Amino acid sequence: MDSHRDQSFDDPASQAAANADYRVIASYRDYTEAQGMVDYLSDADFPVENLRIVGHGVSTVEAITGRMTTARAALTGAAGGAWWGLFIGLLLGMFAAAAAAWLFVMLAGLLIGAVWGAIFGFVGHWVTHGRRDFTSVSTLAAERYDIVCTPALAAKAADLLTTRR
User: Fold this and answer.
1) SS3 state of residue 40
2) What string of pLDDT tens digits covers the 165 residues of the chain?
């Protein structure tokens, strides 16, 4: 059971109690390094369910991937609508008597979905009046990643990691 599940994030006393349950055994600047060390411990048959990777100094990073125009919004909407239309067409096509009718229902669903998707994509972007004319991808990043362990196994984990380095 995760001892952090019932902890309040706003209460410093709760945070201190939660941190007291674990000991820092290693710190890394990169999440991939921390993940690699946990993988190494797993390969060494260490009981990894006693470990946590804790990020400190966490911030959100939003990478701008391009401009969003009404045409691009319509095209993106059309693509999503086409997939939904194809899905509905496949479901309805199961009840078609002939193979040609099944293909017709599937293509009709795809086209109708693409048209409605394009309309909703265009209108959805148009109503924002240019308040968000870009596309982006958001991620979380931390300044430091600590591998923490329960006190009973912290020394063993630290010894295994020192032989690795």
Assistant:
1) helix
2) 344 444 444 555 445 445 668 999 999 999 999 999 999 999 999 999 999 999 999 999 999 999 999 999 999 999 999 999 999 999 988 887 887 888 899 999 999 999 999 999 999 999 998 888 999 999 999 999 999 999 999 999 999 998 876
Angle at 16 between CA 14 and CA 22, to 5 degrees: 115
Same domain, 74 and 94: yes
State the residue range of the domain holding 84: 63-137
**Sheet strands (E) in the chain:** 23-28, 51-56, 59-67, 134-141, 144-149
Q: What is the CATH number of the domain that holds 160?
A: 3.30.70
